[in-house]
Amino acid sequence: GQQVMQIPQYQHVQEGEDFTTYCNSSTTLSNIQWYKQRPGGHPVFLIQLVKSGEVKKQKRLTFQFGEAKKNSSLHITATQTTDVGTYFCAGEADRGSTLGRLYFGRGTQLTVWP
Amino acid sequence: DGGITQSPKYLFRKEGQNVTLSCEQNLNHDAMYWYRQDPGQGLRLIYYSQIVNDFQKGDIAEGYSVSREKKESFPLTVTSAQKNPTAFYLCASMVNWGEAFFGQGTRLTVV
Fold first, then answer.
1. Residues B20-78: pLDDT tens digits?
2. CB burial class (10 A; 0-12, 13-18, 19+) of residue A78?
3. Chain A interface residues facing chain B, Cβ-Cβ under 8 Å?
4. Cβ-based neighbour number of residue A62 at 10 Å
5. Pairing of the two strands B42-51 and B31-38
6. What is the DSSP string of chain A?
7. pLDDT in tens, A38-52
């Protein structure tokens, strides 16, 4: 069945260092989304990527969607303590019987030391 | 304000008891979802519904039940058949091909 794998599970960085989390799907995705969950909170939508090879930036965050629409990455430049949380990728399957269902990765828990 | 509301925030269940978690949205979204979150496990899909009066099992539906009688509401019942119900439960709604909006979550503990 559909699977979305995300690595690493944990990442500890010092403030100012960069951070990257990677997402891989077993099948082609129609789109991929990224969410951030702060400790004790709920997931909040960050961005959606739809096109093959798409790259989007939000300030220090850079999101990429692979050419085959099976993988994605989130890169944070010069991390800050406000970046602490768990980052999830979520892929939506190509049109078919699982229309409208998101497949979440396990998430990468980011800790930033001041 | 448009949004998705879960209640209660904290819930305690005795062994053998059924409990119902509430989820209401006023975003006019057709699709609604229930996820369970355990430490290190990410989000696991329990049930989802794409239209009123219809719903599908997710990956971990055993011991849970849902109903979708109204577009705005998608309550989840954790039955006594669910042997390990202690977890953080998240409800979400979504427009197809769009972003998911999550509620604040319900933390369920068995006492």
1. 999 999 999 999 999 999 987 789 999 999 999 999 999 999 999 999 999 999 999 99
2. exposed
3. 6, 9, 30-31, 33, 35, 41-45, 48, 88, 90, 92, 99-102, 104-107
4. 15
5. antiparallel
6. ---EEEE-SEEEEETT--EEEEEEESS-EEEEEEEEE-TTS--EEEEEE-STT-EEEETTEEEEE-TTSSEEEEEESS--GGG-EEEEEEEEEPSSTTTT-EEE---EEEEEE-
7. 999 999 999 999 999
- B46: nearest CA in chain A? A101
Contact assessment for residue B76 and residue B61, using Cβ atoms and an 8 Å cutoff:
no
Amino acid at the residue A84: V
Residue type, B77: T
Give the distance from residue A10's alpha carbon to the nearest chain B alpha carbon, in angstroms: 9
C-alpha torsion angle, residues A29, A33, A38, A41 (rounded to 10): -90
Question: Under a CB-based contact definition with an 8 Å cutoff, are residues B50 and A100 in contact?
Answer: yes
DSSP characters over B21-63: EEEEE-S--SEEEEEEEETTTEEEEEEEEEETTEEEE-SS-TT
* Helix, coil or strand: residue B79: coil
Residues of A in contact with B97 (CB under 8 A): 30-31, 92
